[in-house]
Amino acid sequence: MTDARTLVIFGVFGDLTQRKLVPALYNLMVDGALPKEMAIVGVGRKEGAVDELRKGLRESAAQFSRRLPLDDQVWDRFAASVAFVHGNLDEADVYIALKEKLKDGDRIFYLATPPDLFPVVLRNLHEHGLLVKGSATRVIIEKPFGRDLASARALNALCAEYLDESQIFRIDHYLGKETVQNILVFRFGNSIFEPLWNRKYIDHVQITAAESIGIEKRGRFYDANGVLRDVVQNHLLQVLALCAMEAPTSFDADDVRDAKFQVFRSLRPIGPECATDVVRAQYRGYREEEGVAPDSVTPTFTALKVMVDSWRWQGVPFYLRAGKHLAERCTEISIHFQAIPLCLFTREQACHMFEPSVLVLRIQPEEGITLHFVAKVPGEHIAVESVAMNMTYADTFRKPLSDAYERLLLDCIRGDATLFARRDAVEQAWSFITPILDAWDADKSSLPVYELGSDGPKEAHDLVSRDGRRWRSLSPHSAA
Question: Burial code of 108-131, b = ≥16 C-beta within 10 A, e = fewer?
Fold first, then answer.
């Protein structure tokens, strides 16, 4: 595919565009990574001239760009590339005006809108001749891609009417993070780790996405979705797939996505009686949040025990947890290795101090990798303690990490789908999650409540303690 020359953003006044897309595009222009004469067309309902839009976009870039202060010359070039089409997205006039404004060449349509508008925009683009199946035109669709298996299949079927699979870019910003991409490099670029990456040497894996903030004025959206849809179905299952996949034939897009899909196919189903493997809870005060129903049973925290039925991982549990208003903001993967089979130091009474080794891949914040292992404390007697070898991106590379949207936008412009979800994987992930959602919908009992700033509900700790294990503490998250 050739580089796309025009990017059309539906929902140009939305929070996603203001906080993420515009700063990312500006930073790419600073880097000289955008194609020459790249055009950006914003589509939105707010009335006003294009100059007002450009002014608002500058204010957003000045607030959210990782490069400050803004470079006036670069910004002027960026602003000159911006055009505007005003109107409601369900009105034909919008698409007629858009068609007149678009330049010749390859195009990307970015649906930065609420999910209920995805079908509206797609149908109108098709009806006005702006989507041509088999062309170089591409469409970026934001998460959530459906809210269950049936709706994901329906949206996929609609996309397939108008577009080839190669034209559809289902975006998950987690996959654009440098630290997430590094999972594969770490695994397959170091011969000392991949031989240990299996059931013989690994006891269990923990994947955590903890936030210290609440729902932040997103009550209506969050209450309709909850943590399982918002975080687990996309972000955490994608991370799990990168950790559990077999080595791909190559790093081409479909080879990588084939390997991930096999992981999704290998997930052991969690049936209607899921109470022993899944925990859900709400933080104290959630029902008093603006936009939240006073009798809401939408979870703000969940923990799951997931089994991957494959030769490599048989018997190794993957514990996933995600939640709001927890002790610390922390997204990480921790690989917990098997305990030593026999302690040789019983006469020195050191054995009770031995902790199994833990490898931690920190996705955010303080991005890096830490290996915790046991070492002897200097002295005449054998005393041991856990020590850590630590690599941080900030200290090692001494450059700020690019925002995930910068990488993903550039990949889509270039036509590289490696970091985007494929239809079969999306539907397979929903096949795993939907029975849990159905079980929750059928069970209207009140949810456990956890305190603000805690590690989550007691039930989550019981989930792993029944197996003789414990969660890594979130406070501080760097502890073994």
Answer: bbbbbbebebbebbbbbbbeeebb
* Angle, vertex CA 65, rays to CA 61 and CA 67, nearest 5: 120
* pLDDT, average across residues 338-346: 74
DSSP conformation class of 347: G
Q: Prior bond to 69 cis, omega within 30?
A: yes
Q: CA-to-CA distance for 458 and 279, rounded, in angstroms? A: 10
Catalytic residue among 86, 173, 204, 235: 235
- Note the pLDDT tens digit of each residue in 63-114: 999 888 999 999 999 999 999 999 999 999 999 999 998 877 789 999 999 8
**Phi, psi torsion values for 466, nearest 5 degrees:** -60, -25
Residue 235 annotated as catalytic: yes
CA–CA dist 184, 247 (Å, integer): 9
Q: Which two tokens stand for residue 219?
A: 């009550």
Strand pairing class (202-210; 330-337): antiparallel
Q: Model confidence over 224-279: pLDDT tens digits?
A: 899 999 899 989 999 999 999 999 999 899 999 999 999 999 999 997 766 789 99
Spatial contact of 453 and 327, defined as CB atoms under 8 Å apart: yes
Question: For residues 423 and 408, what is the distance between their CA atoms, to the nearest angstrom?
Answer: 18
Average pLDDT, integer, range 357-377: 89
CA distance 409 to 403: 10
Contacting residues for 404 by C-beta, under 8 A, at least 6 apart = 173, 174, 175, 176, 177
**Buried (b) or exposed (e) across 165-195, using 16+ Cβ within 10 A?**
eebbbbbbbbbbbbbbbbbbebbeeeeeeee
